[in-house]
Every structure is written in C-alpha cells, then in structure tokens.
Amino acid sequence: MIETLLPYYRYFIALHVVFVISWMAGLFYILSLFIYHTEANDKPEPEKSTLIKQFTKMEATLWNIIATPAMVISVLAGISMLTLRPGLLQTDWMWVKLGFVVGLLIYHFICQNIVRQLKNNQFKMNSFQLRLWRELATIFMIAIVFVVILKDSLNWIYGLIGIMGVALAIMIAVKLYKNYRLKK
C-alpha cells in the first residue's frame, strides 16, 4: 500500500510547506491581535468595549478557521511523509526538527489558551511580554528551516550559536521598539 503512494510523496511535501506557511502566518498574526487587544484595555470607553469585542471576534475567527486547521494539516502531511519514507526517522536532523516541531505545537496550544483568556477578559501578559512571546515563533521557524535545509551538513554548535544570536537580536529589537513607542 505504501509503495503505491510513494509517487505522491512530493504532493505531501507541497501540502506540508503550504500549510506550515499558513500556520506560521496565523501564529504571527494572532500574537499581533493579542497585543492590540491588550492595549485596547487601556483605552477609554466606549472605544475600549468596541475594540475588545472586535479583537475577540477576530482572534476566534483566525484561530478556528486558519491557524488550527493549518496546524492540523501540517502535522498530518508531515506524518504522511514519515509514513511513506520511514527512513527519515533514522536521521539525526529529523529528530532535531521534530523536537522543534513539538516546541512549536506547545507554543500553539499556549496561544490557544491565551485566546480563551482574552475572550474572558483575563489579561495575564502585557503588550511587551506578548511582543517577546511573538518572537519565539520566529525562533522556532528559523531553527526548523535551517535544520531541514542544512540537514547533516549543519554544524550543531554554530547552529545553536546562530539561533541564540537571532533570539538575542530579536529581544534587543523588541526592547528598542518599546523605548521608541514610549518616547512618542
């Protein structure tokens, strides 16, 4: 059965890539909505109520129609690829990638929890903390892409240093942006 599906392997790759892009777009956008939603809490009425109601609706729509379905299809396409080519599980790079994917899945479900919290007017993180949280998805994405593209040629020490350098640069950029916004 699997041998008859092997010619379709590239279709699963294409599906995987398209829906990973959609998933990442959903994660990036949902965090922007969380930030604006949180900042709307500081607005005067009736602007505050109007904005919070709109952000709650936008978050639910994005989460339920784009981000979560894209995550599910990404995972299913990935599982299909591994089923068709189980030898990939013999490679170190695949296990590293899967480790980062597990981290991204955990990130996804924490974001799902934030959607529920904000729907119930529970603001547990401020906009600065949410900006930092948003950048964690960027770090996962960069790590996964580099592991997949470089595979076995990846020097793990340089890769780890590079990811940590990107994370540090992102945190500095977020801090600088915060200072810039406060000066306005």
Automatic annotation (TrEMBL):
Instruction: Name the Pfam families for this protein.
Output: UPF0093
> Where located?
Cell membrane
Entry annotated with the keyword Metal-binding: yes
Q: Where does heme bind?
A: 16, 97
Q: Which reaction does it catalyse?
A: protoporphyrinogen IX + 3 A = protoporphyrin IX + 3 AH2
Keyword terms of this UniProt record: Cell membrane, Heme, Iron, Membrane, Metal-binding, Oxidoreductase, Transmembrane, Transmembrane helix
Q: Name the InterPro entries for this protein.
A: HemJ-like
Which superkingdom, per the lineage? Bacteria
Q: Which cofactor does it need?
A: heme b
Pathway the protein takes part in:
Porphyrin-containing compound metabolism; protoporphyrin-IX biosynthesis; protoporphyrin-IX from protoporphyrinogen-IX: step 1/1
Q: What class of enzyme is it?
A: oxidoreductase
Q: What kind of membrane protein is this, topologically? A: Multi-pass membrane protein
**How is the co-factor bound, per the entry?**
Binds 1 heme b (iron(II)-protoporphyrin IX) group per subunit.
- Residues passing through the membrane, by range: 12-36, 62-82, 94-111, 132-150, 156-177
Q: What is its EC number?
A: 1.3.99.-
Q: Which family is it part of?
A: Belongs to the HemJ family.
On subunit structure and binding partners, the annotation says: Homodimer.
> What role does this protein play?
Catalyzes the oxidation of protoporphyrinogen IX to protoporphyrin IX.
What protein is this chain from?
A: Protoporphyrinogen IX oxidase
Species of origin: Pedobacter lithocola
